[in-house]
């Protein structure tokens, strides 16, 4: 299991299946040492079961209170295969159509879904600016 993009693998391993297999085995073993299998299972089940629109006939009905009551920042990474960029654009469009103040930041990274771990130089300032402009605290994020 990996959230890395195809381009990241192509750049890193240059079509050598043995290197890819070795990398995935290494990362899998490191993950298994760090996390209990039930933790990963529960996280995976929670992600699969998450449904913002649950209990509403339309997703827009679920998003309407969000759009009316809070400013949102949506960050889409073009290479993200877990939460596709098109879904981020769609969410931003729905919130805006409902009259909300939504900001869409577009990022490109070969790290794909893991970009928020690897690209702190992009995400850190972006989030600090959004939180500051929104009047929210970001003390926990300060270094």
TrEMBL record:
The organism of origin for this protein: Sexangularia sp. CB-2014
GO annotation, biological process: homoserine metabolic process; methionine biosynthetic process
Protein name: Homoserine O-acetyltransferase
Transmembrane segments: none
Domain of life per record: Eukaryota
GO molecular function terms noted in the UniProt entry: homoserine O-acetyltransferase activity
Entry-linked PANTHER family: HOMOSERINE O-ACETYLTRANSFERASE, SERINE O-SUCCINYLTRANSFERASE
